Amino acid sequence: MTKTYPFFINFILLLLLTTAHLKSTVQKSDQCKTLVPPELANLDTISNKLHNDPKTIKIASNDYGNIIQEFPIAVFHPSSIQDIITLIKISNNSSVPFTIAARGQGHSTNGQSMARDGVVVDMASFRKQRKGIAISVSEDPLIGYYVDVGGEQLWIDVLYETLEYGVAPVSWTDYLYLTVGGTLSNAGISGQTFRYGPQITNVLELDVITGKGDYVKCSNEKNSELFNAVLGGLGQFGVITRARISLQPAPTMVKWIRLLYSDFSAFTKDQERLILMKGSKQNSELDFLEGMLLMQQGSINNWRSSNFFPLSDHSRIASLINKHSILYCLELVKYYDHQSEEMVDKEIQVMLQGLAYIPGLYYEKNVPYVEFLNRVRSGELKLQSQGLWDVPHPWLNLFVPKSQILEFNSGVFKDIILKRNITNGIVLVYPMNKSKWDDRMSTITPNEDIFYAVGFLHSSGFNNWKEYEAQNKEILEFCSHVGIKVKQYLPNYSTQEDWENHFGNKWMRFLERKHQFDPRMILSPGQKIFNNNYNQQQYI
Ligand code: FAD
To answer: Cα(295)–Cα(144) distance, rounded to whole angstroms?
Structure first.
């Protein structure tokens, strides 16, 4: 449903009211000979960066999910960090503050980067302004290589720039056209997480503009409360303008392997064994491990990494899927370069000894490191050319405790998913080590040494996304009913009680941090944690 909204009137009102209010404050300040806050002097410099033309508003009122629609009053195109500080200070100092959401790529699926009746800060336009100056690689004798990168920057650009120095970050997401600020506000997970931790644990330092408009440098040593709040903080405590990320020497090639299983218990046993394997000189560790479901509805090769299985094997794999309903595909990667090329096959052989995949269903590829990390892009471009990228994405991402993953398989994959028979997209399943996460940070994970990321990455039509949402609801209700203690990743809740349950014993701390860093509840209202106007939520 499209909402007709008096953009222009509201926009003018906002500008007039704030301008009038702030100018009178300036005059009063002048009369009293008090200092004029610099942001008030800057008001004129930012007013022409607020846009409310229908096209700009439309983009900011939608996201990758294509389900929720929330109209902001204006979209802000900053040209400097000072502009964002000024905007936030104006809101924070107003008698009636307006909400502000940084919008990275808008690749959230439930309106998390939207701001109904507020202002969306378009980080993509900021990125264009800072082209060539916001990614900077340095070396330090104590900490080695690191990169300072603007929160608005894309991970793909971080990759290309760091590779110029022969180094790269170690922890990634599957898809690289996401912003640094956007993924660090969640966690940033992929097949490297079991070994290197999520992206948030690879951050050394941040620059953050808090909800009060304070511009703060923070790390584990300095302003650590803000640092830990912001990492995984769902945009609630500040806008990340710079992240310092540790780097390591980059490999040039990867050996990329897929193994197929019909038995979920064998599949997860092998996944867990592989992520616990410790490196030694003869047998170093894996660099990446994921897993996914192959089902009748979906295609054997998918947009996430097309053309992996040879055409000659498609009918064999398809008939096994028919027989078992679901096959489980374990995906692992070992990096190498020309010096380690000879060793890599031997190391892989040792690692794979005793694994219980279906005999013969072993597939491997050798590809350049960049091609592997950027593997989703070609699928994206293909879907875009077919008009299938900008469709609804009723996603559900969960963290499932290891002790309950078998029950999850039988109750969710083998029952709900097969019965409903609508899942035709990607379903990811892979384990991670809790020891690689930092519990001081805001992201919530299950309380077990190993937990699984399970991602239902559905694409649907505009007329049937509700069927997928109903399935997602059924999965969550099932877990709650039988006591599977899942935590949502990229969380989307509809009541305050749900949020409190999500954060569990970290809720009070989250709340205190909100009062400390964004007391007027200005930032990232689309997360619906503190600005929970669920009943008024608009759908497309
Ligand atoms: P947005 O969606 O624009 O923003 C997300 C939240 O962060 C919002 O609340 C926003 O206000 C806030 N925010 C944005 N920028 C800043 C900033 N600079 N400072 C503070 N807050 C900010 N995630 C994974 O972890 N692993 C994956 O493998 C993965 N794969 C994906 C694949 C695809 C195709 C897509 C569409 C998403 C994937 N994601 C993955 C999810 C992704 O991490 C989230 O969508 C995340 O929000 C990043 O997207 P974004 O940069 O567009 O941020």
So the answer is: 45
Q: Is the CB of 123 inside a 6 Å radius of any atom of ligand 1?
A: yes
Query: Which among 154, 178, 488 is the best mutation to test ligand 1's pocket, defined by most ligand atoms within 8 Å of the CB?
Result: 178
Contact between 514 and 496 (Cβ < 8 Å): no
DSSP 3-state assignment of 343?
A: helix
Active-site residue, 174 included: yes
Fold type of domain 7-124+516-534:
3.30.43
Q: Which of 59, 79, 158 is nearest to 126 (CA)?
A: 79
pLDDT in tens, 397-434: 999 999 999 999 999 999 999 999 998 889 999 999 99
Alpha helix (H) residue ranges in 353-460: 369-373, 375-385, 405-408, 418-420
113 lines ligand 1 (CB under 6 A): yes
- pLDDT tens column, 25-54: 444 444 434 344 454 555 677 989 999 999
Please say whether the beta carbons of 180 and 102 come within 8 A.
no
Pairing of strands 119-122, 74-76: parallel
The closest of 199, 160, 198, 152 to 179, measured between CA atoms, is 152
Q: What is the DSSP string of 274-337?
A: HHHPPP-SSSPPPSEEEEEEEESSS-SSBTTB-S-S-GGGHHHHHHHHHHHSEEEEEEEEEEE-
Report whether 286 contacts 277 (CB < 8 A). Answer: yes
* Whether 391 contacts 66, CB under 8 Å: yes
Domain extents in the chain: 7-124+516-534, 133-249, 253-488
Residue 74 pLDDT = 96
Catalytic residue list contains 458: no
Token readout for 430 is 């892979």
Q: What is the mean pLDDT of residues 168-178?
A: 98
Q: Which atom of ligand 1 is nearest to 151's Cα?
A: 18
CATH number assigned to the domain covering 133-249 = 3.30.465.10
CA of 514 to the centre of ligand 1 (A): 20
d(CA 146, CA 167): 9
Please state, in angstroms and rounded to a whole number, the distance separating the CA atoms of residues 422 and 460: 9
Instruction: Tell me whether residue 502 is one of the annotated catalytic residues.
Output: no
Q: What gap in Å lies between CA 144 and CA 134, rounded to an integer? A: 20
Superfamily of domain 253-488: FAD-linked oxidases, C-terminal domain (3.40.462.10)
Give 331's contacts (C-beta < 8 A, 6+ positions apart).
191, 256, 257, 258, 288, 289, 290, 291, 292
Instruction: Tell me the C-alpha distance between 277 and 453, whole Å.
Output: 19
Task: With beta carbons less than 8 A apart as the criterion, state whether 212 and 137 touch.
Answer: no
For residue 50, give both structure tokens.
């607020």
Which residue's CA is minimally distant from atom 17 of ligand 1?
A: 181
Q: What is the 3-state secondary structure (H, E, C) of 216-275?
A: EEEECCCCHHHHHHHCCCCCCCEEEEEEEEECEECCCEEEEEEEEECCHHHHHHHHHHHH
Angstrom distance (rounded) from CA 321 to CA 300 = 10
* pLDDT for residue 6 is more than 80: no
